[in-house]
């Protein structure tokens, strides 16, 4: 049983998405525990501070790994295009705007990272703000798109349920 768990973890860590999910989970867990523990006794405060440092490093790791996501995002956006295969025009437009937001997010984050790292001479605050705003827009559009999909599924289910009852 333990070897199956280790084997499963190895399989997850071998893929980019799996590794990102593990790092993200560890990052947020360390951040949560570190925040809670830093308000406790001296010993727990020190552990909390250490967990917050680990969280910060894991977050930085994820950001550096995102430096390589540009081409994948570009390929996804080009493949989606104007969403001609999408049945719902609202979902199509939300997806297009979301893809644009995501496409702009990466260069903004890269410029902010390069400025913070001393690779380029620029102030990073504006670029971090822009990348955070674009990320937020993408998240909000994702929520709206999911809600729209749920509403459409509910309508579809309602029509088919009604049809079943009528045919009985």
Automatic annotation (TrEMBL):
Q: Note the Pfam families from the entry.
A: PEX11
The UniProt entry's GO CC annotations, sorted and at most eight, read: peroxisomal membrane
Main subcellular localization, coarse class? membrane
Q: Which InterPro entries match?
A: PEX11, PEX11C_met
Which Gene Ontology BP annotations are present?
peroxisome fission
**What keywords does the record list, in alphabetical order?**
Membrane, Peroxisome
Instruction: Report the locations given in the UniProt record.
Output: Peroxisome membrane
Q: Which residues form the signal peptide?
A: none
What PANTHER family does the database record attribute to this sequence?
A: PEROXISOMAL BIOGENESIS FACTOR 11 (PTHR20990), PEROXISOMAL MEMBRANE PROTEIN 11C (PTHR20990:SF1)
User: This protein is called what?
Assistant: Peroxisomal membrane protein 11C isoform X3
Organism annotation: Xenopus laevis
Q: Which gene codes for it?
A: pex11g.L
């Amino acid at each position: 049983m333990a070897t199956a768990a280790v084997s499963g973890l190895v399989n997850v860590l071998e893929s980019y998405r799996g590794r990102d999910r593990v790092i993200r989970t560890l990052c947020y867990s360390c951040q949560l525990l570190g925040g809670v523990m830093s308000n406790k006794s001296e010993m727990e405060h020190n552990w909390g501070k250490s967990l917050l440092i680990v969280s910060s490093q894991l977050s930085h790791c994820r950001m550096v790994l995102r430096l390589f996501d540009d081409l994948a995002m570009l390929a996804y956006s080009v493949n989606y295009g104007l969403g001609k295969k999408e049945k719902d025009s609202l979902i199509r437009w939300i997806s297009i705007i979301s893809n644009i937001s995501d496409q702009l997010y990466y260069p903004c984050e890269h410029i902010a990272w390069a400025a913070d790292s001393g690779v380029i001479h620029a102030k990073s605050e504006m670029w971090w703000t822009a990348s955070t705003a674009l990320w937020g827009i993408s998240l909000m559009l994702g929520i709206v798109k999911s809600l729209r999909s749920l509403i459409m599924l509910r309508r579809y289910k309602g029509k088919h349920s009604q049809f079943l009852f009528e045919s009985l």
